[in-house]
Amino acid sequence: MEVPNFKKSRLSQLVAHGLIISGRGGSKGGGSSRTPVEANDTVNSRAMASVLDLLGEGVIGGLIDGAKSIFLNDTPLQNSDNSYNFSGVTWWFRDGSQDQSVIDGFDFIETPKSVGRQLKQTSQVNVSLDSADSDRVRVVMKFPSLRSIDKKSGDTNGTTVQFKFQIDAGNGGGFVDVVAEGESNATISLTAKKTGVYYRSYVLDLPKPAKAYTLRAIRLTEDHTDNSYLYDDTYIDSIGEIVNTSLNYPNSALVGLKINSEQFGSSMPTRSYLIKGLKIRVPSNYNADTNSYDGNWDGTFKLASSSNPAWILFDLLTNTRYGLGQFVQESMINIGELYQIGRYCDAYVDDGFGGKEKRFAINTQITSRQDAYRVVQDIAGAFRGMVYWAGGMVHITQDSPADPVMLFSNSNVVNGSFAYKGSARKDRYSVALITYNNKEDGYKQSVEYVEDQEAIKRYGIRKTESVAFGCTSRGQAHRVGLWTLYTSRMESDVITFAVGMDSVFLMPGDIVLIADKFRAGRRNSGRIIGYTSNSIKLDAPVDLTSVGNHITFLSAEGKMVGRDILENGKNITTVTFKTALSSNETPVSDAVWVIAQPDLTPLQARVVSVAEGDDGTSFNITAIQNNPTKYEAIDS
């Protein structure tokens, strides 16, 4: 450090600071002065921080790509070209298996405790330890600066400070001197030169047995009153109570890190990890890496890490350790329904940026206990699903393309009537703001803006906001927004009606066709009064003036059967078709028929609730209009 030549006008100030300048001042030839010299720092704060991070319940699939999946202060430990961004960092991984090995160097548990008290010769510091079971204590000393300035020359050099530690085990023996690890005796002499803050840690063995430990630190160096020349203030910054133990932490996925503090200053870096999550039960014919299904499923399961929300939901419902397995048996879940939903989730769609991605995925962590019903519905909501209990079974349904299971017309509903109620105008949105964790931006929260131009033309700007649970893909967040907007615009009607015992099998999520002559303006449905293998006799004439008519009816086996009609004309009472009916396609007695025409199709609706009527023989159905064209619009 260079000190500039000082002018005579500052002599009084320099004398006040003890810098006496001598020379030949006053002579014609000028004078000279000596520049004070500052010695180099002799010590640096260096500590190896040992951190054991619990990633979650085990067994997990592991780090996705080794050190490249470890992030310190949001920076990867290793780059894609295998170069390292940090030196002096060592890491270990355990997947959370029952018999996993102990991580080397993590054979103790340390509990830190902040102290932050100054140590003086006239004021010793006592700190009580929280546990009598501790085996050692780590004391971190803090020195704001260690230097001394010579009053005559102005040179800056190091200094020496002495102190010692004592321990009282609480058994009546009082305080006794203890020797820190690496020291030869109880008195510690620290000689060093450091301009800035210097930290140094000392580890002390604790005497046994003990009732309650108290640590005492005593400064042996005299306190000074003039802080202009001597800097040796001493503080106890923190302590750490250490319990010696060798734990393998079964069923817990772990990452152990040893970090050189020189690269991160006095603060511990933030840590994050990119992992393949908890291994869950998935179908035996399912490849979780490629999201594909090989052949037919035999009904058995295997363990794999998967982001498929359907199989995550199944695991949460049936796991007895952290899920609802104590209350929900596997036999209570309709596995067939879930398998179809799972395959729909894994189907690849456009990601909106020229690539492909699976339709639905969950990449998140559940870190606290929550209401079970809420968690179940959040996971189901990730695939546009709904979970409900009916008939002693857990049913899972999804808003996805599905075939109708029942026909309703004025001829098979109570009083021949349907009631309609449209959604409020304020609930028909044109702009959606979807919050998600963007994997392209370090999994930070981002907001995806989605708009429906047709809705903007009709209703103006009407915003809605929602959070896409477990979503890390911008493409998936965009599809969530489109589904929200298209559903509010295309499926605005709620239909209620009452039915008889023939419709008792209906469940929420089922698709039905509704042919209401009062809403349509003409009759295109009724009852079948006769049939042959190639014809159906209707109970009332219909006008089929255009080409492309199609009849649908319910078979004796409860299946929907459809045929293209050959006839064209007016007042047609018998329709024929080219493809003959098979033995399992014959109509049920007095079956309902519905004809779809190019300019008039039956309304498709999704059942949302089924409630028993007051008379005990009827059921009240509530359904929401369903527009099947929205699905292709969302995914394309």
Element layout with pairings:
Blueprint: H1 11-16, E1 48-57, E2 60-63, E3 70-72, E4 75-76, E5 89-94, E6 108-119, E7 125-128, E8 136-143, E9 147-149, E10 156-157, E11 159-168, E12 175-178, E13 188-192, E14 198-205, E15 214-219, E16 230-231, E17 234-244, E18 252-260, E19 271-273, E20 275-283, E21 286-287, E22 292-293, E23 301-305, H2 309-318, H3 335-346, E24 348-350, E25 356-358, H4 372-381, E26 385-390, E27 393-398, E28 406-409, E29 419-422, E30 431-438, E31 444-451, H5 453-459, E32 463-467, H6 474-490, E33 493-499, E34 511-515, H7 517-520, E35 525-532, E36 535-544, E37 550-554, E38 560-564, E39 569-576, E40 592-596, E41 603-612, E42 619-625, H8 629-635
Parallel strand pairs: 28-34, 30-32
Antiparallel strand pairs: 1-18, 2-20, 3-4, 3-19, 5-18, 6-17, 7-15, 8-14, 8-17, 9-10, 9-16, 11-12, 11-13, 11-15, 20-23, 21-22, 24-25, 26-27, 29-33, 30-31, 33-42, 34-41, 35-36, 35-40, 36-39, 37-38, 37-40, 41-42
Helix pairs in contact: 2-3, 6-8
What spatial order of strands do you see in the largest sheet? 28-34-41-42-33-29
Cα(first) to Cα(last) distance is: 68 Å
Rg, nearest Å: 39 Å
Into which percent range does the helicity of residues fall?
Answer: 10-25%
- Compute the number of helices: 8
